[in-house]
């Protein structure tokens, strides 16, 4: 007989790994068998260990050495011990007065849990339960009758039995966050039954015959807390059903609304300050978006506190991308309700602004763009200085998407209205960032709009020789002829010159290192932004240009003073070395004379 080979563990299967009939053990048993031998040999118990654990480079045992087994379900169900279930008669086969008792019998029959990890286990029983659930859904949807208290008790007990269960830790607790675009989803194997139960329960509470006065004895605080725990399920289909269920409960049970909001707050706070891992944050925020939309005016203080102390800190979690659209929607909903909250929201965003995560910066800028849509002009005045100080940094960002996103703000008419009305405050803040992204020798600048505007005001910014102070925009025949000889392609190619370094003595504006690889769209956006201010107030633009060059001159003076200081220090150190060398030479000569 040919020896068996275990493809999973990449080893021959020994006689100890064979069943009584000679067939190999299944891969799970084989893996456990191998692990037990390894644990006994190396003194570790209860874990499947990474084979690199014995590497001499490993100094101590840590969590990275544990190989997390691949999980095929996002939770753990314990199948119930039961006799073989039988199909009950349909509702059409019994008298009307017998339908309610039959309804309860069918509900109780659905309390049986099956093992879906084995597809071949009790196939007939699984199909009977699925068909029974579909029959219950149809009965609830197509019949009108008074729900008895016994029905509420049995329905909610069936819901708890089938759905309330412990959610295990994530499949990758110490690694990278789950990425739905890259990682394989972990779905519930028993979803065919779970989906039917979620649908039945929704039809039950949405029915016109549903009485929340009776149901509130069973749908209580403990029920809500258990329901919120299920939002950590890794199955997105279940989280979507939970979202709809909780929203319906919030709408039906007025007495539970405050408790639901507080419980969601606790989930968020634990997520932000403790775990930073919870799969259902996005779904909970979707529910809150609908809840916030229904808040009465004026907003209560508890709602304002929730915005600043609970929602805003969600921006600092590293997994922000998983739920940011829903979070931004909630923020905008609050500002639409109460524009006076704009200052607190913007200052919180600036406090949590990412320093090194460019993708996260783009998300923040998207949110700022949404906030601009609902921002009142009076509130804009309160935050324009700190906000545009941050936007100025983003314009100068070395990441082109960050810079491009800010510059795209200029395509918004309402944004243009706000900045032109307050140009005297805003332009001095962002002028340097915009100007340093331009190349002063660009033909379209010298021969285009900027040249025309400056030519119309020849005395606006001039030096002692009555020349424009900006050498890059200096209008002289030599410069114009030289730039006319340069095509647009040649100009943009000049940005790739790696030797175009900062030179304070050149008189040219210092270019951000990122400008050596900006594409044309960035430059077009920058020139468009500058043109807005120039068209609005050319004198202000010229004044900012003058101040900018004055700052360059001051920077050049400081740089010269710094270099001069270092030169003096180097000269002083050099003299000390020379003096020490001469002293050593004199002492050695003296010793020689004394020795003679």
Automatic annotation (TrEMBL):
Residues 1-25 are annotated as: Disordered. GO terms for molecular function: protein phosphatase regulator activity. Residues 1-16 have a biased composition (Basic and acidic residues). GO terms for cellular component: protein phosphatase type 2A complex. One of its GO terms (biological process) is signal transduction. Pfam families: B56. It comes from the Eukaryota. Gene3D superfamilies: Leucine-rich Repeat Variant. The B regulatory subunit might modulate substrate selectivity and catalytic activity, and also might direct the localization of the catalytic enzyme to a particular subcellular compartment. Belongs to the phosphatase 2A regulatory subunit. This is Serine/threonine-protein phosphatase 2A 56 kDa regulatory subunit. The lineage of its organism: Eukaryota, Fungi, Dikarya, Ascomycota, Saccharomycotina.
């Amino acid at each position: 007989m040919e020896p068996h080979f275990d493809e999973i563990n990449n080893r021959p299967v020994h006689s100890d790994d064979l069943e009584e009939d000679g067939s190999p053990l299944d891969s799970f048993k084989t893996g456990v068998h191998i692990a037990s031998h390894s644990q006994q040999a190396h003194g570790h118990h209860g874990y499947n260990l990474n084979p690199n654990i014995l590497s001499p480079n490993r100094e101590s045992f840590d969590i990275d050495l544990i190989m997390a087994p691949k999980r095929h379900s996002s939770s753990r169900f314990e199948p119930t011990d039961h006799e073989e279930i039988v199909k009950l008669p349909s509702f059409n086969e019994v008298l009307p007065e017998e339908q309610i008792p039959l309804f309860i019998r069918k509900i109780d029959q659905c309390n049986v849990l099956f093992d879906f990890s084995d597809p071949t286990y009790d196939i007939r029983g699984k199909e009977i339960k699925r068909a029974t659930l579909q029959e219950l859904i149809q009965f609830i949807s197509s019949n009108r009758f008074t729900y008895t208290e016994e029905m509420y008790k049995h329905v909610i007990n069936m819901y708890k039995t089938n759905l309330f269960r412990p959610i295990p830790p994530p499949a990758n607790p110490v690694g990278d966050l789950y990425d739905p675009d890259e990682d394989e989803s972990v779905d519930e194997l028993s979803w065919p039954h779970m989906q039917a139960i979620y649908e039945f329960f929704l039809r039950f509470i949405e029915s016109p015959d549903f009485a929340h006065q009776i149901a509130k004895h069973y749908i209580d605080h403990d029920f809500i807390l258990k329901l919120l725990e299920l939002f950590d399920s890794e199955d997105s289909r279940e989280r979507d059903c939970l979202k709809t269920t909780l929203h319906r409960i919030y709408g039906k049970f007025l007495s539970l609304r405050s408790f639901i909001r507080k419980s969601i707050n606790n989930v968020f706070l634990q997520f932000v300050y403790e775990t930073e891992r919870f799969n259902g944050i996005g779904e909970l925020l979707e529910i809150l978006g609908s809840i916030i939309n229904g808040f009465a005016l004026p907003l209560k203080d508890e709602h304002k506190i929730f915005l600043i102390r609970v929602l805003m800190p969600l921006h600092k979690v590293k997994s922000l991308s998983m739920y940011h659209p829903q979070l931004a929607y909630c923020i905008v909903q609050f500002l639409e309700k109460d524009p006076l909250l704009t200052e607190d929201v913007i200052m919180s965003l600036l406090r949590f602004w990412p320093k090194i995560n460019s993708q996260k910066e783009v998300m923040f800028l998207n949110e700022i763009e949404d906030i601009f849509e609902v921002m009142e002009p009076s509130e804009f005045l309160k935050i324009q200085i700190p906000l545009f100080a941050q936007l100025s940094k983003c314009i100068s960002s070395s990441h082109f998407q960050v810079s491009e996103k800010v510059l795209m703000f200029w395509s918004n008419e309402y944004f243009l209205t706000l900045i032109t009305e307050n140009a005297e405050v805003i332009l001095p803040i962002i002028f340097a960032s915009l100007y340093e992204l331009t190349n002063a020798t660009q033909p379209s600048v010298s021969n285009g709009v900027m040249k025309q505007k400056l030519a119309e005001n020849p005395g606006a910014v001039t030096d002692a020789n009555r020349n424009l102070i900006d050498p890059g925009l200096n209008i002289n025949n030599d410069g114009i002829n030289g730039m006319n000889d340069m095509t647009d392609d040649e100009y943009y190619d000049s940005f790739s010159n790696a030797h175009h370094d900062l030179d304070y003595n050149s008189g040219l504006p210092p270019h951000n290192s990122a400008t050596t690889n900006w594409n044309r769209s960035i430059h077009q956006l920058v020139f468009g932004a500058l043109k807005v201010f120039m068209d609005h107030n050319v004198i202000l633009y010229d004044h900012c240009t003058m101040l900018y060059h004055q700052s360059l001159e001051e920077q050049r003076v400081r740089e010269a003073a710094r270099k001069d200081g270092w030169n003096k220090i180097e000269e002083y150190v050099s003299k000390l070395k020379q003096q020490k060398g001469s002293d050593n030479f004199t002492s050695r000569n003296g010793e020689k004379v004394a020795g003679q």
